[in-house]
């Protein structure tokens, strides 16, 4: 989010809240069992506005078009439901910019990304209620292949639904450019099994694979293809006629599908095909999503599930930070339970949120990524602004900053890695590209890199309980889990969806290692570049290379190996950097490239060993003076660092998963 846009958006939300009116008296909703809203209240008491159709229209009509115009967003849809009825439904902008086709909340279809998962989880719970699935049974019981793990604990559907099954991240075939190349669900799951890198049930690490696995369980237990099951058991009972998981869409629905855009001023991009389709391939209209929200707010009776059971907190990232229910995750605010799920493809960005205790649901979806990917931040701002406007909380408690803030702040300062990521594939090298850091400020507050306020300044947090920091002038918490020796091992915050936890970084994910690899790369690059430079200098002065025979071969091989080692690492990092702009660019069709890189990697490893061998030879060669020996030792050390890098980051692993 750009600084100007973020500041302006924050100001607009504040202005709307500032003109709040006192609502008419209402009867409070009955409490929900085990749905404690653990997020604190908002920063200052604000009178609530009445949740009426007119006021909701004023809120969204003021915020959404303004944000779309400044964010380069082509179209959006918003639906709000309350007490079993659609309170508000509006389309904004265009589903097809070139044809000037307006978004219709009743018929225009949006790709809802991972919000699709709520339908998969609902299907699982239908079969649980029928006694056909046991959430605590080994998931292998329901499969025709086996998920192996080294921890001696079975993976269960309960863990899968809270994203704590222990799977690492996988990107292969997540997005497929042509629907003709999509695998069947079973084939996708069998050929893309990720590593189980955490003990099942211990760590939240969001996983698309695990949701696809749950969809496959639905297929096998019900005896129906996943698409058929959803259509017959969810869409049909709710009357959702403008929704589908199918790729490509059924012919009758294709005219309703919105185009997808990077930004509104650019041509549309092709339809995004999702490989693990139960995890994110659904397309739907705002009106259909309203029916789904109403069904769950009504307790799930129309769907033959117990929705309250799905809303109950099943797993927290760290104790005291709200986490996942059974599929729905919590983003509680102002003392109100808020459950739902976001959804992001490269073009479409979505959020569905339910306030079960208030019988209210909000769905918003955009058909564009927008300038600098603004829609991800915008959907969060819209939800928080909505809750603050209609369900404000009391003032934050006047908690003093603990006297231990400096001591504890020093203890928890350091580098962290996200639990969601690649571990056994080349994706692990992403640890060299980015590092999350906590650091102590001079005023003994704590900051966490990547978390900024509306002015793009680092947020500050002050310690209000031992190893619990509250956002300064804000509601969010930052909490650390310590080990028996008093060292921080886990960190989580209520300032984001609980899709992962942060873990104390190991050497492979540290700035120190990034600098070491960088220094080795510089040494090897200088070594390689010195080869042609020295040749030009010798030619200019009419001199010859002071080596003959084997020594001349060794010299040239060492220079070539140096260049190869640097070039390969640079290309791997380039490959990973593309994730920031397009997952699709590396999720499909990389097999040939990866094989070539890995074969060259093996050659480079052998060459790195040669660099060490050559350095040893220089110590017995009187032609090399002190500086010559030092130079070759540095080259050898750089080669050893690269050997470590290639092995640690799985750059010479020939497995197909990534």
From TrEMBL:
Residues 1-20 form the signal peptide. It holds the Pfam family Beta-lactamase. Residues 67-379 form the Beta-lactamase-related domain. Gene3D superfamilies: DD-peptidase/beta-lactamase superfamily. The chain crosses the membrane at residues 513-537, 557-575, 595-617, 629-649. Coiled coil: none annotated. Residues 24-47 are annotated as: Disordered. Keywords: Membrane, Signal, Transmembrane, Transmembrane helix. This is FmtA-like protein.
């Amino acid at each position: 989010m750009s600084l100007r846009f973020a500041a302006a958006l924050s100001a607009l939300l504040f202005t709307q809240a500032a003109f709040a009116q006192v609502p008419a008296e209402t009867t409070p909703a009955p409490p929900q069992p085990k749905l404690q809203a653990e997020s604190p209240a908002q920063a200052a008491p604000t009178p609530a506005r009445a949740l009426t159709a007119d006021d909701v229209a004023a809120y969204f009509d003021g915020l959404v078009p303004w944000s779309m115009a400044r964010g380069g967003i082509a179209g959006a849809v918003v639906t709000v439901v309350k007490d079993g009825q659609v309170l508000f439904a509006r389309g904004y902008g265009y589903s097809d910019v070139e044809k000037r086709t307006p978004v219709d909340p009743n018929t225009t279809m949006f790709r809802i990304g991972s919000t699709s998962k709520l339908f998969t989880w609902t299907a699982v719970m239908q079969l649980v209620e029928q006694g056909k699935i046991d959430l605590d049974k080994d998931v292998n019981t329901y499969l025709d292949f086996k998920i192996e793990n080294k921890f001696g604990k079975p993976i269960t559907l309960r863990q899968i639904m809270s994203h704590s099954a222990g799977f690492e991240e996988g990107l292969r075939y997540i997005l497929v450019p042509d629907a003709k190349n999509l695998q069947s669900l079973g084939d996708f799951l069998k050929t893309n099994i990720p590593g189980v890198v955490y003990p099942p049930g211990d760590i939240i690490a969001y996983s698309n694979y695990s949701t696809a696995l749950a969809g496959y369980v639905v297929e096998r237990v019900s005896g129906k293809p996943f698409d058929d099951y959803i259509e017959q058991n969810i869409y049909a009972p709710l009357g959702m006629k403008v929704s589908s998981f199918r790729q490509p869409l059924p012919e009758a629905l294709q005219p309703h599908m919105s185009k997808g855009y990077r930004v509104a001023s650019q041509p549309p991009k092709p339809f995004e095909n999702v490989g693990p389709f139960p995890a994110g391939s659904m397309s739907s209209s705002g009106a259909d999503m309203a029916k789904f929200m109403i069904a769950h707010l009504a307790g799930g009776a129309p769907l033959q599930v117990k929705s309250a059971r799905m809303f109950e907190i099943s797993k927290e990232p760290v104790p005291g930070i709200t986490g996942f229910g059974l599929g729905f995750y919590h983003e509680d605010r102002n003392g109100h339970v808020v459950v739902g799920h976001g959804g992001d493809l490269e073009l479409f960005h979505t959020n569905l949120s339910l306030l079960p205790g208030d019988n209210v649901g909000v769905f918003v979806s955009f058909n564009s990524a927008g300038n600098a990917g603004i829609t991800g931040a915008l959907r969060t701002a819209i939800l928080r602004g909505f809750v603050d406007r209609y369900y404000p909380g009391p003032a934050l408690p006047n908690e003093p900053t603990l006297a231990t803030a400096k001591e504890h702040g020093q203890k928890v300062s350091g580098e962290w890695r996200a639990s969601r990521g690649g571990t056994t594939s080349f994706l692990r090298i992403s640890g060299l590209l980015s590092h999350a850091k906590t650091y102590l400020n001079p005023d003994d507050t704590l900051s966490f890199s990547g978390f900024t306020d509306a002015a793009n300044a680092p947020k500050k947090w002050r310690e209000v309980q031992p190893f619990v920091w509250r956002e300064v002038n804000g509601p969010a918490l930052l909490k650390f889990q310590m080990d028996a020796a008093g060292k921080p091992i886990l960190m989580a915050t209520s300032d984001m969806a609980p899709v992962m936890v942060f873990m104390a970084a190991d050497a492979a994910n540290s700035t120190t290692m990034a600098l070491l690899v960088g220094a080795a790369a510089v040494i090897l690059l200088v070594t390689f570049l010195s080869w042609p430079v020295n040749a030009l200098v010798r030619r200019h002065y009419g001199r010859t290379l002071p080596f003959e025979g084997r020594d001349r071969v060794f010299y040239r091989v060492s220079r070539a190996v140096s260049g190869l080692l640097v070039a390969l690492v640079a290309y791997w990092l380039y490959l990973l950097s593309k994730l920031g702009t397009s997952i699709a660019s590396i999720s499909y069709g990389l097999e040939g490239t990866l094989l070539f890189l890995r074969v060259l990697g093996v050659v480079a490893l052998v060459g790195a060993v040669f660099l060490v061998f050559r350095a040893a030879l220089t110590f017995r060669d009187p032609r090399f003076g002190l500086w010559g020996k030092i130079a070759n030792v540095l080259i050898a050390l750089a080669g050893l660092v690269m050997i470590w890098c290639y092995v640690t980051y799985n750059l010479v692993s020939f497995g197909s998963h990534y």
